[in-house]
Write a structure and sequence with these properties.
Blueprint (H helix, E strand, L loop, with lengths): L4 H26 L1 H8 L5 H27 L3 H18 L1 H16 L7 E4 L2 E8 L3 E5 L5 E5 H4 L4 E3 L1 E2 L2 E11 L4 H11 L12 E7 L3 E10 L5 H15 L4 E3 L1
Helix pairs in contact: 1-3, 3-4
Length: 250
């Protein structure tokens, strides 16, 4: 074999290796939809499309860098540079990657969906939307609270929506101008104003007290999730009419 042919043959081998890397990436991307559908059980098509685009971009990027490494005359130097670039990319987009993984975890768990009534870190409300960055919850006071997926993946989420309605939990603080028995009787009596909207009798439990207030936990199992705001307004008005000094926290 002529000496001049050896470098050409070596380069052709590297070209073939680079071509194989590109072809493998193409085949992986071609069947990636089926692979993801087999392992990731999520109904939201918008999220799946975004997740697939992200995976395809990673596959193509790896294939391109692999092909370049085969064609490079200094593969060791290129490998070191590639490692440095990879670390820089991971560090730069760490928050994005973490949020994407958390979104996958939250959606895959199916702990709640749009329209459900949830409680997260003391915030209660209806899930109005699930965006690419987090969940928007609308509270009883018409406040819109944004909760990122990274937070949802690392805290307790209580879904108070059930087959027969939604469980609404309130904290009621009654002034100590009453004795504890009378305070509880007043709450039970006031809650009768919404009895027809409840599945069962409301639960009223003394949790503790401060220097000025008794603290009661009130749980209302509302039959129709669409009437939660109406039930809350009725309860608040009735309680305030009986004792203006009490406070309701939800």
């Amino acid at each position: 074999m002529p000496e001049w042919f050896e470098p050409i043959l070596s380069y052709l081998v590297r070209v073939v290796q680079a071509a194989i890397a590109i072809v493998v990436a193409y085949l992986v991307v071609k069947y990636l939809d089926r692979l993801v559908a087999a392992f990731v059980k999520i109904e939201e098509h918008e999220y799946l499309e975004r997740f697939l685009m992200f995976l395809k971009a990673i596959v193509y990027a790896i294939a391109a860098l692999t092909a370049i490494s085969f064609l490079s005359t200094e593969p060791v130097v290129f490998a070191v540079m590639l490692l440095a670039v990879g670390v820089a990319v991971v560090v730069t987009f760490s928050d994005v990657l973490r949020n994407l993984g958390s979104e996958l975890y939250v959606r895959s768990s199916k702990a709640f969906r749009v329209g459900d009534w949830i409680e997260v870190d003391g915030v209660q409300g209806r899930v109005s939307s699930m965006t690419s960055l987090g969940v928007v919850v609308e509270t009883l006071r018409r406040e819109r609270v944004f909760i990122p997926y990274t937070r949802l993946a690392h805290t307790k989420v209580v879904n108070r929506s059930g087959v027969y309605g939604v469980s609404l939990r309130l904290e009621v603080r009654v002034p100590k101008t009453y004795d504890v028995g009378k305070a509880r009787e007043m709450l039970v009596s006031a809650l009768r104003v919404v009895r027809e909207d409840l599945i069962s009798e409301p639960s009223v439990t003394l949790r503790g007290s401060t220097e000025l207030f008794y603290i009661f936990d009130v749980v209302l199992d509302v039959m129709n999730i669409g009437k939660v705001e109406e039930v809350f307004e009725k309860v608040l008005l009735e309680l305030k009419s009986r004792e203006p000094g009490l406070d309701v926290v939800f």
